[in-house]
Amino acid sequence: MSDAPTTIHGFLEGARAGRLTAIRCGKCSAVAIPPKQYCPECGQRAWEPLVLSGKGTIASFTVIRVAPRGHAGEAPYAIAAVQLEEGVSLLGRVVDVPLDSLAVGLPVRFRPVRSRDQTVVGFGPAGTPA
Amino acid sequence: MRRVAVIGVGVTKFGKHERTSGELFAEAAADALADAELPVSAVQALYYGNVVGGETEKQLHTGPQAASLLGIPTVPTTRFETACASSHAAFRHAVMEIAAGISDVVLVGGAERVLSVPTDESTEYFAYASDAAWEQPLGLTFPGVFALVARAHMAKYGTTEAQMAAVAVKNHRHGTLNPKAQFRKEITLETVLGSARVADPLKLYDCCPFSDGGAAVVVVSEEVARRARRPIWVLAAAASSDSMLIHDKRDLSRVPATERAAAAAYRQASLGPQDVDVVELHDCFTIAEIVATEGLGLFEPGTGGIAAEKGWTSLGGRTPVNPSGGLKAKGHPIGATGAAQIAEIVTQLRGEAGPRQVEGARVGLTHTLGGNTATVLVSLFGRE
């Protein structure tokens, strides 16, 4: 429990450094993206850290053409919901994949991505290292 | 629990206005009170939806502001914020308060003013309803959220962009019959499919517009309703929620909060989807209408696109959906939308909808979705 990431900041700091650390319920083995006080599956609070491989496939995606103020200069850019091999999902930018090659089911791999002045969760082609 | 009815409705024209959101609400509220044939002094509480007033008008505490503009500054009032479902959440609160015997006459409504700021600015403010730590930094927009839903639905069921476009064509056709609608112009499939891309696969005409406007409804106890000329009864007012974060949603092709809220509403009313004659639902994007018709049980999962394409949801079809023109053509002043949907269903069940009337409608449903599918309200209404 003490080693499990317990804050949004903790997870995202790790992600910026290239590490994805999820949480696994010590009672029912459900895996979740932190933070969660209680396990949504069994209601217990017995989280253990689980290091994610970063490998997954695109569950859905979009190409943002009309961006909010603050991202205007970046459009078009791709955002995907990625199902990771451990069963949890993450939303992130997709980079180094041609926009017209994006597809549901496409294998991708986690990598931190620079967007404006911050580093965010991202994904690149499956074959490339994080 | 006491029975509850709606006896008055009022809606401003939707579109661009030069008045504050509080003023727009007050206009709609005065129309609703006139419709109810009640003096403003009869109002015992005001529940009010307003979402981005803090950003577009630099205005918080909009409940008492609206009450003051209406001329009833001393009634209890609360502003509700459940993103685009705000005034429907306010309505459910009023229904519970009256059912519990606390009040007999409650005014419910909402208003929004967004066309006073540029599109990239309003796009940013609407995105505040997605998560500030996880989603906003990615540059995710609301069209982007529903584009993810659309792509998942297309992958799972084979739903096409032309089927989504059919929703827009239908709602624009309905909008031509509604004098309060923001857009009163027919469009074609080609208009939709050829329009500028916003968030693939959604194009400009798959998206509802930004709108200014207000709406209000007068909600009363049975005792008050018995003295009214044409009360419409509240048969159910249900809510459900879902994970805030997109990464916690298991299946982006569905909106589970719609399914749960609908099940609760049907249970409260002892009715099923087959009993519903007319529907006003949350078509913020064309795909949202398709997924909502499935979640409400009107059509099997995966067949909502086919239903739109075949005209089953058109006026004259099996289950007319959004005879008002929906958010797509009528407009979507987000704080007002839930109340405006209720106003349309009340008008339909009274048989007063003119050229857009669903003939013989006895049971109506309103469905309002908030944010990235995390809030849903479903209410059912009936004639005596």
What does this structure look like?
The complex is a heterodimer of chains A (about 130) and B (about 375). Chain A has about 130 residues and is mostly beta strands. Chain A has two domains: about 45 residues; about 70 residues, OB fold (Dihydrolipoamide Acetyltransferase, E2P). Helices cover about 5% and strands about 40% of the residues of chain A. Chain A contains one helix and eight strands. In chain A, strand 7 and strand 8 form a beta hairpin. The model of chain A has no long low-confidence stretch (mean pLDDT about 95). In chain B, the strands form two sheets. Chain B has a nine-stranded mixed sheet with strand order 3-2-4-7-1-8-11-10-9, with helices on both faces. Chain B folds into two domains: about 140 residues, Thiolase/Chalcone synthase (Peroxisomal Thiolase, Chain A, domain 1), CATH 3.40.47.10; about 190 residues, 3-Layer(aba) Sandwich (Peroxisomal Thiolase, Chain A, domain 1). Chain B is globular and about 55 Å long. Helix content of chain B is about 35%, strand content about 20%. Chain B is α/β, with parallel strands linked by helices. Chain B is built from 14 helices and eleven strands. At the A-B interface, helix 1, strand 4, strand 5, strand 6 and strand 8 of A face helix 5, helix 6 and strand 5 of B.
Summarize the structure.
The complex is a heterodimer of chains A (130) and B (384). Chain A has one helix and eight strands; from the N terminus they run αββββββββ.
